[in-house]
Amino acid sequence: MGGCGVSFVDKSCVEFSAALASKAPVPGGGGASAMVGSLGAALGSMVCNLTIGKKAYMDVEEEIKDVLSKTERIREDMLNLVEKDAEVFEPLAKAYGIKAQSPEERVAKDALMERALKTACSVPVEIVKQSLECLKLLAVLGRKGSRLAISDVGVGALFCQAALEGGRFNVIINTSIMKDRAYATSVEQETDRLVRDGLALADEITRTVEQRIKKS
Amino acid sequence: MGGCGVSFVDKSCVEFSAALASKAPVPGGGGASAMVGSLGAALGSMVCNLTIGKKAYMDVEEEIKDVLSKTERIREDMLNLVEKDAEVFEPLAKAYGIKAQSPEERVAKDALMERALKTACSVPVEIVKQSLECLKLLAVLGRKGSRLAISDVGVGALFCQAALEGGRFNVIINTSIMKDRAYATSVEQETDRLVRDGLALADEITRTVEQRIKKS
Predict the structure, then answer these.
(1) CB spacing of B23 vs A151 below 8 angstroms
(2) How many Cβ atoms from other residues are within 10 Å of residue B79's Cβ?
(3) What is the pLDDT of residue A138?
(4) What phi, psi does A12 have (nearest 5°)?
(5) CB-CB neighbours of B172 under 10 Å
(6) Among partner residues B29, B36, B216, which is closest to A36 by beta-carbon distance?
(7) Contact B33/A155, CB-based, under 8 Å?
(8) SS3 assignment, position B152
(9) Which of B158, B174, B199, B208 to mutate against chain A (most A CBs within 10 Å)?
């Protein structure tokens, strides 16, 4: 990372899958969650693109265009977060590797670790936020988008749910070992709140999708 | 498709995400589910690769090597299913497009549609099966894999759960409009059984991961 070679999202899907499978520290579960979030947003955009311009959906066209501009922004932001997750993991991996023997060295390492943990948390928190935003848009598409693409709304919601909860695991793996418990608890509580809202939405969307498929 | 141009999984992640977002009939939610399943299997492989060769896990090394060979097979099978999903959708898209006016034409179109729907179902059923197999392997990794990679086991399980349920949506979108109700019901019931088993496993894995992270 940090400018050396090709970015992860410019790798082919085959190469990205192989890189994820390797023991290399990045990409890991955080970056992969952002990738899955991007695919969830992409399905939202696809549903918009299959709705816009269709006579039966003329009355919602402006609203769907607005949704499309937002799913496209999230799709791109999530792709950027794949890269950013690798960048913020770098200082943490370095801090982990430091050999501290004297008490002074241990204090210095602890301080470095603490800062690195806070930085490493920032990207998965953002993945959680973007996943929730995308679920809100998919909820609109489940009600107003083309019925021909209703299963894609459902799959999009499942992907955003995975990115939401995957992001959360990558938050708490860092907060759980922070010394600053007040900070850690506040990040965990905010994340849990976002995840709770996202899970409720995902559940509502997949139920709607299930009903609409079965009525078809 | 069908030999014309680059395969979907050879596209870069950025290009695949953009192709999914477009109104083009493929890739769709089925192929995307296979892609997410491949990433779930990749995280399983990563956890194996971070466990093998480590002193603390010498007693489970052979078992983890066996798990790795299986997650790697699923990872590759899932990548192939991304392509196959597009291939089996082609005859269905063609059948949909046929203009049938006379009663004879309508009978012929119905027969073609029915066959195309059964073919289109085959790939998502396979995605559901492979996702369940991968969840079984991730359950082993949650108990025996390196604790340093415990969050990745959880994220892998979330991805396989999304692929499992995403595959199911792509099964029932096809079975719901089949005329052969006996066939449709039998496929739906088998799929529901696999999904029920998979969801129970995913729930067990994510609970274990949550507990192990919080104890760290």
Answers:
(1) no
(2) 25
(3) 98
(4) -70, 160
(5) 23
(6) B36
(7) yes
(8) helix
(9) B158
- State which residues of chain B have pLDDT below 70: 1-6, 216
Q: What is residue A2's predicted lDDT score, i.e. its pLDDT?
A: 42
Per-residue tokens: B63: 């078992």
Range in A1-5, A42-46, B126-130, B175-179 with the lowest mean pLDDT: A1-5
- Tell me, what's the pLDDT at B6? 67
Backbone phi and psi for residue B31, each to the nearest 5 degrees, phi listed first = -60, -40
SS3 assignment for chain A? CCCCCCCHHHCEHHHHHHHHHCCCCCCCHHHHHHHHHHHHHHHHHHHHHHHCCCHHHHHHHHHHHHHHHHHHHHHHHHHHHHHHHHHHHHHHHHHHHCCCCCHHHHHHHHHHHHHHHHHHHHHHHHHHHHHHHHHHHHHHHHHHCCHHHHHHHHHHHHHHHHHHHHHHHHHHHHHCCCCCHHHHHHHHHHHHHHHHHHHHHHHHHHHHHHHHHHCC
Alpha-carbon gap: A38 to the closest alpha carbon of chain B (Å): 7
- Express each pLDDT in A151-169 by its tens digit: 999 999 999 999 999 999 9
pTM for the whole thing? 0.97
| Chain B residue with the nearest C-alpha to that of A176 | B214
Q: State chain B's mean pLDDT as an integer.
A: 95
B57 vs B59: CA distance, rounded Å:
5
Complex-level ipTM beyond the 0.85 threshold = yes
Q: Which of B90, B82, B74, B71 lies closest to B10 in space, CA to CA?
A: B82
Contacts with A28 from chain B: Cβ below 8 Å: 46, 152
Task: Output the pLDDT for position A73.
Answer: 98
Cβ–Cβ gap A21/B214 under 8 Å: no
The fraction of chain A above a pLDDT of 70, given in percent, is: 97
Inter-residue contact A38 to B17 (CB < 8 Å): yes
Mutation for A interface: B7, B11, B14, most A CBs within 10 A: B14
Q: Which of A13, A82, A214 sits opposite B9 (nearest CB)?
A: A13
- Residue with tokens 């290009």, as numbered in its chain: B15
Which residues does chain B have within 8 Å of residue A34's beta carbon, measured at their own beta carbons?
none
Q: Identify the pLDDT of residue B1.
A: 40
Of B46, B158, B170, the CB nearest to A22: B46
